[in-house]
Design goal:
The protein is an alpha+beta fold and 194 residues long. The protein has 6 helices and 5 strands; from the N terminus they run αβααββαααββ. The protein has a single domain, classed as 2-Layer Sandwich (Heat Shock Protein 90), CATH 3.30.565.10. A 5-stranded antiparallel sheet has the order 1-2-3-5-4, with helices on both faces. The radius of gyration is 17 Å and the shape is globular.
Length: 194
């Protein structure tokens, strides 16, 4: 007798689907992975592993900075805004191909926050580079930002550094919680084409 799909935690189902999709990519190599409750030491291990891999592959500084920057912003958002309840597990998968790095991650959060994030991501996906840069600079100049966040500054930072569209989806896991999945991609060439 096997386990039913409902008895498997959602973060495990999401991670398995992302991993299966990754394995279907030609030449994909897993370079960073985490599942469980994210804490600062785990955060730092994932970042160090990914950065070391990027260095070993000979990525240019701008590629490495974009990759690490996107990953740091995404993980900071999980640490700051993820649900602290019984469903606070997350997953993080980072893999690379010759063309790009892909970051798949997911975490639980309140339903309303998930809906707001999906809406903001939809808007960012519709914006061009100039619009995103303009909004980013306005957020930086905004005096109402706080130490715990800039009300969207992290998402703007991610959108500036990764290839769009940002893929995002959520599913309700309880009456007041959702599980949000994100897929981010960072190209392995400098913006100038090198």
């Amino acid at each position: 007798m096997g386990t039913s799909p409902q008895s498997v935690p959602h973060y495990v189902r999401s991670m398995t689907a992302a991993r299966d999709d990754m394995l279907a990519l030609e030449g994909a190599k897993l370079i960073g992975e985490f599942t469980g409750r994210l804490d600062r030491p785990s955060f730092e291990r994932v970042i160090a592993s990914v950065e070391a891999h990027s260095l070993a592959r000979g990525d240019g500084l701008s590629v490495r900075k974009r990759l690490v920057g996107v990953l740091v912003e995404a993980l900071e958002n999980i640490l700051r805004h993820g649900d602290q309840g019984p469903h606070d597990h997350c997953y993080i998968l980072v893999h690379g191909t010759e063309a790009a790095y892909r970051i798949d991650l997911g975490n639980a959060l309140p339903l309303a926050r998930a809906a707001l994030l999906l809406h903001r991501i939809d808007i960012l996906n519709e914006m061009d580079e100039a619009d995103i840069k303009e909004h980013y600079l306005k957020f930086l100049a905004n005096d109402s930002r706080t130490i715990t966040g800039g009300a969207g500054l992290g998402l703007l930072s991610i959108a500036r550094r990764c290839q769009r569209p940002i893929l995002a989806s959520s599913v309700a896991i309880t009456s007041d919680q959702a599980f949000l999945d994100l897929r981010l991609q960072v190209v392995r060439r400098d913006r100038a084409g090198a």
